[in-house]
Each structure stands twice: as C-alpha cells, then as structure tokens.
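Sample A.
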Amino acid sequence: MPRLEEVRFYLRGLMLLAMHDPQGFRQLDLTDRGMVRSFWAIVWTFPAILVSWLWRRALFLDGMPEGFRPGSTFYLRLAMVEAAGWIFPIVVAGILLFALKAEKFFPAAVVVNNWLSVPFAYAYTVLVILLVLLPGAAPIISLLWLALVFALVTMLFRILYLVCEKQNLMAGTLTMLLLVPPLLLADWLQRFLGIFPV
C-alpha cells in the first residue's frame, strides 16, 4: 500500500499536470504496475466513503416510518454501489480506447482517475459534514458542491488532455465517460437495491 508521502507525491504530479506542466508526469507511475497500484486509492478514500455512507443512511431513515431500521445488508448494498462506481466507468473507458486503438492511454487514464478521486472524496466529505452541522446553509453548500464538480471536471479534462497527447475530443470523451456513468449507475443501483432516500 502506498504511504502518505507517496500519495502526496502523486497528488502533486496531478496538480502540475492540471496546470499543464509536463513535469507532473515524472511524479506519476503511469505504467501497468502503476495502474494496478492506483486502486489503493480506494483504501485511501475509505474514511471519506464511510462518512458518506453514514450520511446516506441518515437520509434513508428520514424517509422511513418511525422506528424503522435498515437490515444488516444496507452497508453491503452501499459497498456494491461504491464498487460499481469505481469499476464501471473504467471498463467503459477501456472499451472505448481499445475500440479506437488508443489503448496506450488506458493505464494513464486509470491512474489519473483513481488518484484524483482521493482529494475530491475528502472535499465532498467536508461539504457533507457542513450540511449536517449547518442545515440552514444548504443553498450555499449546494453552490460549493457545484463549484467542486466544476473543479473536478476541469482538472480531469486538463490532465487527460496531456495524457491523450493534446487531443481535445479524446480528452473530453474520456472525461465524460469517467464522470457521468458513475452518477447514473449509482442512482439506478440505489433504487434497484432499495436504498435510495425517499
């Protein structure tokens, strides 16, 4: 498992790439080995994921009758939704890249997507905590959430633009494939598994 210093090194590389500084490539392992190791990002985001799960459980209970308690499989179902959100967009992006004979970009796209999720997972968690502590500030927090989404889209596109050798269309398509399907899939899976807040 990558240590904190290594994760910081990767994140600095991502920040450099987001600022279109090619030196950022020297701080990322974009090989097949680096791609596999980048899935440790899931472990690094787990504390943030756990806070999100607790919040989703609270939202779910708000729509249920008094005294209702979800079964022991509630968190297992949330874990299934989370896992699908990590894997599905990568698979879709991989299929696209292989179909376009641009599979050389695949390891780098996975590495970027996985490690970039770490800081944004914690940023979203901060907003969740603020929403719980300051429910009256929901409109402001919603604006902050939109700003965070915009920042994620912008950073991912700018980094993938360099990864894809400055091909705008390829970078834009990959950005959408890595961000939009997880949102749609999470919504559908939560409804299908019966854990969507009413």
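Sample B, a different protein:
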Amino acid sequence: MAPVIGLVLGAATGAIIAKRKGGRGLDMAQYAAAYAIFFGLIGLFVAIFLARNAAG
C-alpha cells in the first residue's frame, strides 16, 4: 500500500512543482513521472522495512 500512496503523492507533487515553475502539460507530466518513481521507491523501501520488522 505504501508504494501506491508514494506514487500518487509523488505524481501530484511533481505536477504542482512543474506548474509553479510555469511548465506546460508535458513538463508537468515529466515532473509527475519522475517524482512518482522517486516517491514510489521510498514507499517500497518503507513497505519492505515494515514487513521485515513486523515478523520479529
């Protein structure tokens, strides 16, 4: 669940940042994709960490 939340939050964050910088549609899409990948990876590591520590 954490990676999905990271993807959504990352895409929204990237789009907002690109919009604030005056970017157009493709700029917003590129920022959204980059931030979604980054936040999704962070979410994946969080999920792995929680899964490994919950068993012990």
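Observation for Sample B: The chain has a mean pLDDT of 95.
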